[in-house]
Every structure is written in structure tokens, then in C-alpha cells.
């Protein structure tokens, strides 16, 4: 893209989205496996956060640092992974703006 170009126009973007094979069984199964991993990311980080805050023996500076990393990873698992997995599986790599 040259200088000043923002992305695709609406008609080109909608044509690209209509050409995406949304019902391909192989892509759906790959997306479901990525969704299962995303669920494990979310649940695992929730368990870490809950364990540190429930048990007083686990409340140390090191474990609070681990909790902050778990919170950051939890936010990525909730806000980024579902969308990036969908875009990656269906190869919708566009600049539709």
C-alpha cells in the first residue's frame, strides 16, 4: 500500500468476507481446539489468582508478582485470543477499516 492508503474499501472488504470458507470442517475443528486452549488459559489463570488470594500461606511478594502476570495473561485470554484465533483460522488478514 502506498502513502495515504488506509485499507480496502467497503465493497472489497465485504467481498473478501463473503469468500471466507466459514463452514469448512477442518477449519472449524482447528478453531475448536484453539478455543479449548483458550478456555484452559482462562481457567488456569483464574485458579492461580484464586489460590493465592484464598491461601494466606501463598501471599508473598513473589506470588503476588505471579498473580499480576496471571491477571495480564487472563486479560489476553479473554480479550485477544478468541479474535486472533478466528482471524488466523479463517485467514481473514485484511485492513478493512
From TrEMBL:
Its main location: membrane. Keywords: Cell membrane, G-protein coupled receptor, Glycoprotein, Membrane, Receptor, Transducer, Transmembrane, Transmembrane helix. It comes from the Eukaryota. InterPro entries: GPCR_Rhodpsn, GPCR_Rhodpsn_7TM. Pfam families: 7tm_1. GO terms for cellular component: plasma membrane. The chain crosses the membrane at residues 28-54, 61-83. Gene3D superfamilies: Rhodopsin 7-helix transmembrane proteins. Residues 44-97 form the G-protein coupled receptors family 1 profile domain. It is found in: Cell membrane. It is a multi-pass membrane protein. One of its GO terms (molecular function) is G protein-coupled receptor activity. Signal peptide: none annotated. Belongs to the G-protein coupled receptor 1 family. This is G-protein coupled receptors family 1 profile domain-containing protein.
